[in-house]
Amino acid sequence: MEKSIDEINTRIRDGSAVVVTAEEMPDIVSELGEEGALREIDVVTTGTFGAMCSSGAFFNFGHADPPIRMERLWLNDVEAYAGIAAVDAYIGATQESTTEGATYGGAHVLEDLVSGRQVELRAISKGTDCYPRRTLTTDLLLDDLNQAIMVNPRNTYQCYNAVTNQSDRTLNTYMGTLLSNTGNISYSGAGLLSPLANDPTLSLIGGGVPIFLGGGSGMVIGEGTQSSPANGFATLMVSGDLKEMNSDYLRAASITGYGVTLYIGLGIPLPVLNTDIVRNTAVRDEDLVTSIVDYGVPRRDRPVLRTVTYAELKSGSVEIDGEMIRTSPISSFSMARQVAGDLKARVEEGAFTLALPTMRINNQKRNRPMRETARTPRVREIMNPAVVTITENELVKTAAKKLLKGETNHLPVIDREGRLVGIITTYDVSKSVLRDGDALTVSEIMTKKVVTISADEAVDLAAQRLEQNNISALPVVDSSRHVIGILNAVDLGKLIQRRWQP
Amino acid sequence: MKLFITVPREVIKQPLIAQVVLETGVLINVERAHIDSTEGWILIDIPDAEGDRISARLIERGVDVKKLEKAVIHDEYECVECGACISICPQEVFSYDEDYHLVITDDRCILCGRCVPACPHQALSIRQ
């Protein structure tokens, strides 16, 4: 048996369609069987509510008198892209305020507008014959705009990696606070309610499909940026009218150490046309597998610690290396339920009919990493391999001589096998002279916890590590902690300056 | 229950907690403390039934004692129940009920403040 989209829409219009949420579907299919569920159920609604950084909106402000072609513009001090002429602009959710930094950004402008609050527009221009005006300031409400069209290039990931942090430093990431030494696990996504998890082959979701977006109605434009359906990481580009949205489903957020983002509710109703669709929408959290990745490694390809199901993640704790680690989401499941439930009510009321994609999304596509033509310099290329070292049992006096002779401020301390065991600086030596004279040995004054770097890391990471630890040199070590060089902040500074000079 | 003790300069050098433990035999759990030369505070956890007795003994020794209540201020409008606070709290103050609504058991709070910057929606603050 198969059903057509027209049959389903007819039932929606006359109020007889049977609509369930993707959370209700698995038990229904278990009870009625696939054929039974196909006969009984017409529509399955999905929903998700989480941080969707790649979001924003196009505005048309109407023309001022005398008119201006806005070259740069700011809404409540958040810059919007004005390179689309005259009085059009695009504001991105993560753009930060020039005056308030990470506490206010594009997402907050969107939330303020949707909540009926006034927003200040400032614009500048060089002035032309056709657009003579050079500056403009005005207060605007959402109603004052001709158009406010949300266009989100990358929303509603099919699946997202869960993350933890095996490093010894707490990390502030877009996945929230990650405690050191595998202190917690953070994950995102609504699991069995997630729109793309219910249509992994992209047979129903594609260009032109109507959706719930931020409390209003919108549609799928097509494939989202970075979409990678071939390995289960599809995304969607979506659009909707900001004027229909409400702040229950559109919330600005500011994530410590990362910046501004937008939380938005997105739901897609799926027509139940055949048993393949029944099977796909019967997906449970137990079936949805993702990876737990170590964000302690600051690289693009981060180590996967294990795979995990959404059911395990939602249970509150997951085992890693024999230890139970607490989990928490950064997207809201209660709000995802509300999206799917609200959408269900709208379909039941006949207010929301369905459509098949007018443009299908290629489900074989796989995302590629960036082709980098200018390779990021590695630590090996700028470190000083002629590093002067000292052993633990030598006298501080010897250290002082070495520091002077080597014209350096840092002496890595090594053991008999040449492995790094500490570091001393000119400051340590001066301090020890004041304290106990020069009879001390190196091991008595050295810092034992040394911040190091390996030769194959990018220099950018070295720069970050120096800054975070407020230090000026990093011993470069190999995998067995042999000192093979030293990286100096001054050399790094010179290099970075050179790279960014036009 | 948790008691928040403010220690004035006059008694800052005295072994206050140790004395009260010896006198009462009640096991006092010091959860957090900050003491310097001029002032200090101590957050202790004690069995509920001993609250009055321990408070009285501490006050006799010249400190100010407040019962810690509603330590976590939760802005229900800003909160979207994303759950970012759950796994970062060392005291497991935050959890979900069976419907994924956020539950705050704030009598466990030790005022560490870790949840405040961890909330993406700035919905949490700690009563000072």
Automatic annotation (TrEMBL), chain A:
GO biological process: methionine biosynthetic process
Keywords: Amino-acid biosynthesis, CBS domain, Methionine biosynthesis
Gene3D superfamilies assigned to the protein according to its UniProt record, in alphabetical order: CBS-domain (3.10.580.10)
Origin superkingdom: Archaea
CBS domain segment(s): 383-440, 446-502
PANTHER family: CBS DOMAIN-CONTAINING PROTEIN, CBS DOMAIN-CONTAINING PROTEIN CBSX3, MITOCHONDRIAL
Protein name, per record: CBS domain-containing protein
Native source species: Methanocalculus chunghsingensis
Organism placement in taxonomy: Archaea, Methanobacteriati, Methanobacteriota, Stenosarchaea group, Methanomicrobia
Automatic annotation (TrEMBL), chain B:
Residues annotated as domain 4Fe-4S ferredoxin-type: 70-99, 100-128
Entry keywords, A to Z: 4Fe-4S, Electron transport, Iron, Iron-sulfur, Metal-binding, Repeat, Transport
Pfam families, sorted: Fer4_9 (PF13187)
GO molecular function: 4 iron, 4 sulfur cluster binding; metal ion binding; oxidoreductase activity
Record has Isomerase as a keyword: no
UniProt xrefs under PROSITE patterns: 4FE4S_FER_1 (PS00198), 4FE4S_FER_2 (PS51379)
Protein name: [Fe-S]-binding protein
Organism encoding this protein: Methanocalculus chunghsingensis
